[in-house]
Design a protein that fits this description.
Blueprint (H helix, E strand, L loop, with lengths): L4 E3 H4 L3 E3 L5 E13 L2 E12 L3 E6 L3 E5 L2 E4 L14 E3 H5 L3 E4 L5 E13 L2 E10 L13 E5 L3 E3 L10 H6 L5 H10 L2 H10 L2 H8 L4 H9 L3 H10 L2 H9 L3 H10 L2 H11 L6 H4 L6 E2 L5 H8 L11 E5 L10 E6 H4 L19 E2 L4 H10 L4 E5 L5 E6 H8 L34
Parallel strand pairs: 2-7, 14-15, 17-18
Antiparallel strand pairs: 1-10, 2-3, 3-4, 3-8, 4-5, 4-11, 6-7, 9-10, 9-13, 10-11, 11-12, 15-16, 18-19
Protein name: CBS domain-containing protein/sporulation protein YlmC with PRC-barrel domain
Keywords: CBS domain
Organism: Antiquaquibacter oligotrophicus
Length: 435
Amino acid sequence: MSTTRAFAARLVGCSVFDPNGDKVGKVRDILVVNRAKASPRVVGMIVEVPGKRRVFLSIGRITSIGSGQIITTGLINLRRFEQRGGEVRVIAELLGRRVSLADGSGTAQIEDVAIEEVGLGDWEIGQVFLRRPRTGPSPFGKGATVFASWSEIADDTAPGEAQSATQLVASFADLLPADLANVMLDLPETRMIEVAEELSDDRLADVLEEMPEAEQVDILAHLDDERAADVLDQMQPDDAADLIAQLSSERGEALLDLMEPEEAEDVRFLLTYAPDTAGGLMTNEPIIVSSDATVAEGLALIRRHELAPALGAAVCVTLPPYEAPTGRFLGIVHFQRMLRYPPSERLGTLIDATLEPVHADTSAAEVSRILASYNLVSVPVVDENHRLVGVVTIDDVLDYLLPDDWRSTNDEPELQPTTTASVPVKGRRTRNGTR
């Protein structure tokens, strides 16, 4: 059933279907343009289609909004969305904005906005859902809520004042780190920084690991040293080392001094290797066990939910000590082989004798060749004394081989949409063709 009124925050994540009932994508934001003497007009939605690409869907191409789904005419241009001057994203840029009320009753923050159909295919922002500042002493209480029309509010954000990103972060809670990184890369720089500052340390660490180096450095530059060090503590040591290597030596050393000693030690160790070598690509936190460990113990270690899949593909067997750099490296045991033996079997008897480790100074190109030639997802790295110092995983190699801007490139081939019409839309337009 179609509706003539919908709240923007509730539309985020809703599925978009064509007339045949085939799913086209998911709503990620609502796009509006401001008008001088009227409420902002809705021009369309930002939709995430397969391949994690975000495209523009004109409001004139939407035939139904309601029941947790959006129905379109089937005509969708799959060119990557690019925001134009004068356009405002409701979720990314309006939510959290501080406004003052025209009746003089004070200020409030925008928590949601309602879009309303005022004519056939013509939508605009109707009421705005606001929350007033907390008045009680309790840190857990919330301020009162109130509805207001667009004409009854005015922007109250001072120049240079940060906009609250709490509501925006909440709307992104279901996104995987890589997807959230892509969303943030699409935001204006100021808003991206505001969102980064609102994220928890571990969430921001996960997102930074999925971003290009330039944006990593930019975000870290806006964090104070204490917060930046806390975020680096939560990152994988190899990713933290790569990021610190992009900073000035003074700030890098200052952040290392503020990090937890054990985490800083791992990062300093990785920074001693050239970036285009196995040592520069590796992580120094593989799963390490003794030869007397059992299959049951090995499987228990790779079941940990926080473990990256590539790291869980095999366990490394060494002599003591069992932290990198370890005692002499004995070999690896693939998890698939562990599945074929009883739980009591000793891992020392299951070592893959055909797989040779690489040395820390082995070139990244050679590591890539080895992974490809032997269909591996990881390869162990040893030093000159044959001690295990880490493992290089397939994702590390892909990050090295792909161009620096692979996360944000706009050069993907155009996808052909499934549509019931014979002529696809050639450009992004509004209902009346003005876009």
